[in-house]
Amino acid sequence: MKGRIRCALLLLALPLLPCGRQAVAAGFLPPIDADDRVVAGGVHPQARPELAVGHSDPMLPMARIIVALRLRPGAQPRLDALLAEQQDPASPRFHRWLTPAEFGEEFGLADADLRRVAGWLTAQGFTIDEVAKGRGWIDISGTARQVEQAFRTQMHDYLIDGTLRHANAVAPSVPRTLAGLVAGIVSLHDVPLPSVGYRRRAAGTGGARPLAPADLATIYDLLPLYAAGIDGAGQSVAIVGRTDIELADVQAFRAWFGLTPNDPVFVHNGPDPGIINAFDEGESDLDVEWAGATAPRATIQLVISGSTAASDGIALSAQYIVDQNLAPIVSTSYGNCETDLQSNGLTFWSNLWAQAATQGITAVVAAGDSGAALCEAPTRARGSFAAVNGLCSTPYDVCVGGTEFDDTANPAAWWSASVDPVTKGSALSYIPEVAWNESGTVAGGSDLWATGGGASNFFTKPWWQSAPGVPNDGWRDVPDVALTAAMHTAYVYFEGQQQLSIGGTSGASPSFAGIMALVVQRARQRQGAANYFLYPLATRQYTGKGPAVFHDITAGNNSVPGVSGFAAGPGFDEVTGLGTVDGAALADNWPNVLASDGCIPGPATLCIDDQPGDGRFSIAVSFVAPNQAGNGTAISLASAGIDQGGLFWFFAPANPELLIKVIDACPLNQKIWVFYSATTNVGFTVVVKDNLTGKSKQYTNQAGAAAPPVEDTAALDCN
Fold first, then answer.
1. What order do you get walking across the sheet with 155-160 strand by strand?
2. 664 shares its domain with 569
3. What ranges make up the beta strands (E) of 430-497?
4. pLDDT at 623 over 70
5. How far, in Å, CA of 121 to CA of 138, rounded?
6. Mean pLDDT of 259-275
7. Cβ atoms within 10 Å of 709's Cβ, excluding its own
8. What is the tens place of the pLDDT at every residue in 61-102?
9. H helices present in 87-191, as ranges
10. What is the pLDDT of residues 371-398, one digit of tens each?
């Protein structure tokens, strides 16, 4: 009974159309024919008849099923045009990021269509858990019996790798009249989405040199940024996860490597799953610790969603991060090949990362650790065919591959004989790199361990993917960039209070996400689809017309036993992308979106952000009283979580005279709003400066008159 009441309330909360439009639309809606069907999903490749052990319990809870929705008709070209405009400094929509609700209103299903899908789902007995603000999906819950009846499938139990799993044995379907609205059912199984690769051992064993955060900072030139105060302060990186971790492990990692204390934030999306296994715990430990290693003062948010019998916690966490607009950067170290994800899964991830980009979120995804054979686990002895990670092959994310240091011939040239007692670092400078390949195709290698990379078989080449070396193949090529990933110089992390080491792009992705946090801090605004700037920077460098931002990796390949891969070469390649980055050069040459260096807070200057940490607005107040004149003293409210307002006092800090806030209302009327209220009759002048455009607005109150409130909804132009 409670479920039906909740469902009804959610349906009532869906947007209502004006009566006229609603009546007209209703008149042309065809009835839903339950028997005229179209396929709306697939069957997991491991749900094979020989592994089946019987039908699933009809009452098996199928919680948080993700029903992916299509964009509204004609939305895709407009969406791609918006993304281009958001990255074009000459456009009035440059860096005018959307909220999730604005994305839904502009590109999601129309209100009547959204209600139609939700109504059909509730009529099948499902409980609606959540309707995305961006209208990209509806999460529902029910039982295996309801799933079988609604989607005309069968739920079976399978013994997969020694574990009992539940999965649909027949591709799900929906009524044909909903086919233009429903993109597909993302999954109806509990086979875990793989981490892109996971190989750990005790730190310093097996001939591996342990890699410290200080080493990465030296090799990739982050130290000049840290010295300038560009260390992630005021920024946030969201990590996609499905398990809890121990806070003590992150604290031990930071203490051991001399990093300042900075605890991550654990965000539970739904019931707390606890620590589900050592595999996932280690992955999330690595991601949290190394995102915070390259951006040591950033807030790292681990989003934890428990997997269900129908949906993977990784998908649930990713959609939560985007729908809540949680952070300017999101890092994902999980994935699967495009073939296994199938068109419904690929559409879900592509639309999700596209929405993220319109909100200014930079999605960073690991390329994978099975070389050119991403459909196999890296622990397999042989691959079968070329494939790439479908979570990173979309046109809307930054795909991060792997390299290895070419230091074995003369280690003393690159590494100090002694280790810093505080930071544990020993790298002396940048170290030349080759493509990461420790697979069975190289001496001393094994299995498929090598960087992912290749051409998508699903996504066509986006217009922005142009640089020397990019193949003219018509398909999206990955990775975009790379960082070190080899086991012979392994990332050190803490798990279970043990010091362990690991190789793979699972370390490269969060490390690059941290570097992007430094870029965002330096640029003072979210950056969204970072590839729109990464590729032009590389083009200028590789044509001799711009600064050196990338280390061009020209040696090595990602061929693995059974599958011929790709070779590294000058400029872009399908092994290491554009190359690895010089962090300081990347941040210093990133397009600066502010007309000045942004607001510098001081006793008489209040800084208000538009995007987190951008210091877009500077506010100063001067006053004249009968016996005193001067500047008002600013009181920031950021510590209370209020970034768009503050106070000023004239005579005593316990008695402030003025409360002011600045609001970016560009999506509403293309204006910046200024609101303030004062409790004084002294003469004063308020000056609000927009550091993005360099324009200012001034307000004056005459002495002897009680100051009226100001509600200026056309204070400044947006650009």
1. 52-55, 155-160, 163-168
2. no
3. 433-435, 454-460, 475-478, 481-484, 489-495
4. yes
5. 9
6. 97
7. 9
8. 999 999 999 999 999 999 999 999 999 887 888 888 999 999
9. 100-107, 111-123, 144-151
10. 999 999 999 999 999 999 999 999 999 9
Average pLDDT, the chain: 91
Amino acid letter for position 364: V
Q: What is the pTM of this model?
A: 0.83
Give exposure, 344-371, as e/b (b: 16+ Cβ within 10 Å). bbbbbbbbbbbbbbbbbbbbbbbbbbbb
601 located within any domain: no
- Looking at residue 114, its pLDDT comes to 96
Query: Is residue 124 in some structural domain?
Result: yes
Number of domains in the chain: 3
How many Cβ atoms from other residues are within 10 Å of residue 484's Cβ? 26
Angle at 246 between CA 241 and CA 249, to 5 degrees: 110
Q: How many CA atoms lie within 13 A of 101 on its CB side?
A: 4
Rounded to whole angstroms, how far apart are CA atoms 266 and 305?
A: 11
CB burial of 673-705 (b: ≥16 within 10 Å; e: otherwise) equals: bbbbebebebbbebebbbbbeeeebebebeeee
Q: What six digits make up the tokens of 363?
A: 């999605």
- In this structure, the answer to whether residues 148 and 278 fall within a common structural domain is no
What range defines the domain where residue 237 resides?
Answer: 200-587
> Cα angle vertex 96, ends 94, 98, to 5°?
140
Q: Is residue 190 part of a domain?
A: no
For 253-273, give the DSSP string: HHHHTTPPP---EEEE-SS--
Distance CA 568, CA 576 (A): 7
Is the pLDDT confidence value at 494 over 50?
Answer: yes
Angstrom CA distances, 584 to 230, 343, 573, stand at: 10, 39, 23
Distance of CA 260 to the CA centre of its chain: 25
Residue 25 lies in a domain: yes
- What lies within 8 Å, CB to CB, of 35 at 6+ separation is none
- Any idea what the CATH number is for the domain that residue 316 is in? 3.40.50.200
Residue 600 has pLDDT above 80, yes or no: no
- In this structure, of 17-26, 107-116, 317-326, 638-647, the range with the lowest mean pLDDT score is 17-26
